[in-house]
Amino acid sequence: MSVTAVPIRPLKKGSVVRLWAGIAILCAAGAGLAYVGTEGQRAADPASFLADNAEEDGVVTTASGLQYKVLQQGAGPRPGETDMVAVDYEGRIPGGKVFDTSAGRGPATFPVVGVVPGFSEALQLMQRGATYRIWLSPELGYGAEEQRDPQTGEVVIPANAVLEFDLTLRDFQPIPPEQLQQLQAMRQMQQQMEAQQGGAKAE
Length: 203
Description:
Pfam families: FKBP_C, FKBP_N. By secondary structure, the chain is α+β, with helices and mostly antiparallel strands.
């Protein structure tokens, strides 16, 4: 029994070079996609992302796990838990997607203890005029609770996301006594509710 070979058309002069060039391009594209996929996995895995980020130049990690980098030093005293701050900020999730910013609205004003734990801790490290870039683990941010746009219902911050902020401390001043009492009462109620929810989940 004879085997018929399928005739292969001879390659024109220069085609071999173009063929290898094409293979090289495809390999480079594949490597690029693999790298993007790896970066996406690292961004999706908070522990890996923060471990890598901790090795970057200028990044400091506190005992709580808050990571920050001083972009510009400030001067003078630092705010405390009983202060109200005025802050310029931009919040992002890894990959660079902005989920909130004060740009175009002027500095945001709020109590130091009126924000997520990592943000509150970072504010108390800063001086007037300072600009920091901070990274919050899910435990210091919104945890397993995804955050949705109240108008569209779209997920703005995924569950268990690392949060990245650039923030500039413009000013701060003590919270008036009557507002401080109200804030403390609200915090106690919130802590009680969280404790009850934690107990319910444990059951």
